Amino acid sequence: MPGWPDAPLTVRLRRLWPLVLPLVGCVALVAWTGLVREPARRETRAAHAELLALEQETEELRQTLSDQTAAELAAQAAAAQALLMDSPTALQDRLKAYAVQAREAGWEATFQIYGLAEDDAAAGEGARFVFVPARVRLEPRTDSADRFATLVATLGRLASLPGRIEITRVTVRADRPGVPVVEVNLRAACRPAHEKAAE
């Protein structure tokens, strides 16, 4: 110790405290960072790995797609959603209206909709729409004049019903001579129940 070569040990230690305390603090901080903070940060990153990957993918898509392309895709998605029927009941109402038009054209139309109860059960939780199948049976009325022409027009009305309706099969049978029977299988895209509930 300068100026006091034989100073007592307690005095020497007291003079060292200003140097020892910061050193101990630094060692403790490094130990806490390595043993406590970093493991906690690693666990947090691991727990949010999916969100981080999604954020990175979103950022990559944002850099890849222009604003105009994104707007066009959003408009197309909105237009596709607008074609979805709210429920299978909407399909039933449209087929009832179609049956009236078919009768005016000289055809008796009967229909059957399948899967009214299980349409949502068949779709996963993430499904944006479900297909509801149906069958329409057309039989000519006795007072039908030009059956072929009216049949083409009647099938055209069925294909142009509002909403996303896809005709999957058309079968024409002639069990009785001159009396064709037409069966049309179709499916309509409807919103699932969980999406309607979310809205």
Would you write up a description of this structure?
This protein is of the alpha+beta class and 199 residues long. It folds into 2 domains: 9-64; 88-198, Ribosomal protein S6/Translation elongation factor EF1B (Alpha-Beta Plaits, 2-Layer Sandwich), CATH 3.30.70.60. 54% of the residues lie in helices and 21% in strands. The protein contains 6 helices and 4 strands, in the order ααααββαββα. The chain has a 4-stranded antiparallel beta sheet with strand order 1-2-4-3. The chain is rod-shaped, with a radius of gyration of 37 Å. The model has no long low-confidence stretch (mean pLDDT 75).
**SS content category:** alpha+beta
> What's the architecture of the largest domain, going by CATH?
2-Layer Sandwich
The fold-level CATH name of the largest domain is: Alpha-Beta Plaits
- Specify the overall morphology: rod-shaped
Uncertain segments = none
Mean pLDDT: 75
- Assembly type of the chains comes to single chain
Report the total helices.
Answer: 6
By DSSP, the count of extended strands is 4
